[in-house]
Automatic annotation (TrEMBL):
Protein name as it appears in the record: PKD domain-containing protein
Region (Disordered): 129-160
Organism of derivation: Candidatus Vogelbacteria bacterium RIFOXYD2_FULL_44_9
Signal sequence region: none
Organism ancestry: Bacteria, Candidatus Vogeliibacteriota
Location of the PKD domain: 221-251
Composition bias, Polar residues: 134-149
Pfam family, one: PKD_4
Domain of life of the source: Bacteria
Family matches, as Gene3D superfamilies: Immunoglobulins (2.60.40.10)
């Protein structure tokens, strides 16, 4: 009995000893497999003022520099020593300010208009533990063009469809909802309204929602086009009646969830000239006299038959294109062609005025005509007055007014009839 108790006690002591050996041996190894720092894994970049940088990535790592997923959501604070620096997501909206649990990488983009070398910093704080980590990196803003690894182009072009890039409004936004601008990423519920757009007055622009997989449950999309009009739907079309820069806001609704994205549209007058019609060679030359490229998609060359210009018929600023013509477009007696805009205005050969300029000229002519309609006895700058009289017509037709100019008399001239 005593021997059995001794053996049991010895076994228990062995177990305790092995447990302590395991704790002392394996604890340092386990301690190493925790997040100890965040680092920038991408090289410092040089960016052009006002344009998005290439992708910038931070990563959580162990003390040995090994990638390690976080075990809690990390709240992120992005900062720059430049007062004009912006931290953006892939869509151009303000970056989402957290790192999800069980992830190790966070990618963002940077935009700045202030030339020089700046320091950008990221501070990560554990939402549950409160543990803090930070990292910094230099970035240079230079007006010298430099090739970057950006996946998308944030420039304004006249393409007819909205694709990936969204124009964010920086850290400040005037949209009506208190909901923050969403950052378009596949891993989180987010939407995008498309890149910045360049359009001409009257031509329709197609807008289409870009959404992540996590936002597939959204059942209502509301667009505000910035000119007092709106529409609903996942894909909509809108044309602007007046030139200007417009803010387009997209709201997505999903139960009690609301996501917001926005972009900009720059609308220009189309200064188009139908410069030449060559019936022998079979082409019409169309010139863009504007300062920006234009898209003549939805326009039509009209003669005996219509020749629609295909979507994305783009003419660079100050350039021209030659449109091949079907011989059937001419009649036996006329080679006259007109170019019809998307909203129905006609441009005939040799005309180079924009629609707005034509309307202004008509208004000026109207004002000049109105100025000629004087009231009887109205004083003129030259010291003369208008007097009215009637001319009778022997054919009993309505009488016409006759207007004569007479010198304007002072009171004493009228008294003595001087000057009559």
């Amino acid at each position: 009995m005593l021997l059995r108790n001794f053996n049991n006690l010895l076994l228990t002591n062995k177990i305790i000893i092995f447990w302590w050996v395991g704790v002392l041996f394996f604890s340092p190894m386990l301690a190493q497999a925790t997040v100890e720092k965040i680092v920038f894994t991408t090289e410092p970049q040089m960016v052009v003022p006002g344009q998005m940088s290439g992708s910038i990535t931070i990563q959580t790592q162990t003390s040995d520099g090994i990638k390690e997923d976080v075990t809690e959501t990390m709240d992120l604070i992005f900062s720059s020593d430049s007062s004009t620096g912006e931290f953006l997501g892939s869509t151009g909206n303000p970056v989402t300010k957290y790192m999800s649990k069980n992830s190790a990488n966070r990618t963002f983009y940077y935009r700045d208009s202030l030339l020089g070398e700046h320091i950008i910093s990221v501070e990560a704080t554990g939402r549950d533990s409160g543990h803090k980590f930070s990292a910094s990196q230099k970035i240079t803003v230079s007006d010298t063009p430099v090739a970057t690894s950006t996946d998308e182009d944030d420039s304004q072009t006249a393409s007819s469809t909205a694709v990936v890039i969204v124009s964010g409004g920086g850290n400040y936004s005037a949209h009506s909802s208190q909901t923050d601008l969403s950052d378009y990423e596949e891993s989180t519920p987010s939407i995008g309204a498309g890149r910045k757009r360049l359009a001409i007055v009257g031509s329709p622009i197609d807008f289409k929602v870009e959404q992540s997989k996590g936002a597939s449950g959204i059942n209502r999309y509301a667009w505000s086009f910035g000119d007092g009009t709106s529409a609903e739907g996942e894909q909509v079309s809108h044309g602007y009646k007046f030139p200007g820069e417009y803010n387009v806001v997209l709201n997505g609704y999903w139960g009690n969830t609301q996501l917001v994205a926005r972009t900009k549209v720059l609308v220009e007058e189309a200064k188009v000239v139908l410069a030449k019609i060559d019936q022998r060679l079979g082409f019409a030359e169309v010139v863009n006299n504007g300062q920006k490229e234009i898209n003549l998609g939805h326009w039509v060359l009209r003669g005996a038959i219509d020749t629609p210009l295909p979507l994305d018929t783009i003419i660079d600023a100050g350039k021209s294109i030659k449109v091949p013509l079907d011989p059937k477009i001419f009649t036996a007696t006329s080679s006259q062609l007109v170019l019809i805009s998307a909203d129905g205005y006609e441009v005939v050969k040799g005309e180079g005025l924009s629609i707005l300029e034509l309307e202004n000229k008509l208004l000026q002519l109207k004002e000049q005509l109105m100025a000629l309609q004087f009231d009887p006895d109205q004083s003129l700058a030259g010291g003369e007055v208008l007097t009215g009289g009637e001319i009778e017509n022997n054919d009993q037709k309505p009488t016409a007014k006759i207007i004569t100019l007479e010198p304007k008399l002072s009171w004493w001239q009228k008294m003595f009839r001087i000057g009559k």
